[in-house]
Amino acid sequence: MLLQLNNIFKWVQSGGSRIFLLKDINLTIEEGEFISIMGPSGSGKTTLLNVIGMLDDFNEGEYTFLDESVHTLKEKYRINLYKQYIGFVFQAYHLMDELTVYENIEMPLLFKKYKTAERKALVADILDRFNIVGKKDLFPSQLSGGQQQLVGIARALISKPKLILADEPTGNLNSKQGEEIMELFKQLNDEGVTIVQVTHSEKNATYGSRIINLLDGRMTKN
User: Fold this and answer.
1) Does the residue 68 lie in any domain?
2) Residues 6+ away with beta carbon under 8 Å from 187
3) What is the total count of domains within the chain?
4) What is the pLDDT of residues 133-187, one digit of tens each?
5) Neighbours of 82 (CB within 10 A)
6) Taking the CB of residue 133, how many other CB atoms lie within 10 A of it?
């Protein structure tokens, strides 16, 4: 088992009442699964992804990741766990504006203390795989939205994470690029990487082995 969520609740206070973002989520994800999270806007999809990715806290419940009780960990240790095992692909790219494409992609390797020669080889390999060798010295502001998303995905993949979390990963790509990204995810999943994606696209959801539907913060029966 890769991770388990037990009775997860997340809410915000508004006036005197609680507005629930997640209600009683129970979810087990095994290593090697490819899961699609679907539901209307405001149903809690991104919140759930952020909780799994340790970017968001929750108010009640338990979260176990690789036998670690995430809910009891100090923040520093939790961040280390996230950086060690999770690659995140955001809809809004989240690239560092002041770094080049090359430097953005290299960043996770610096955290994991890869040696220089190894970093160079891995970055060169992934630039090639994504067909962006010619863009390596450009800054994010010089790229189109689709190209920025490709860089974001390359950065998420570079350090070979156990789990990739993707929030509408093809949302800003044209259909051909989107299809290429989904095929790449499928290939990575075949190689053993666990993938959880949030998507509105029925077509993208079919790449997954299991679909989780959310409505008003609750998981609904398929």
Assistant:
1) no
2) none
3) 1
4) 999 999 999 998 788 888 988 998 888 889 999 998 888 788 887 888 888 889 8
5) 19
6) 13
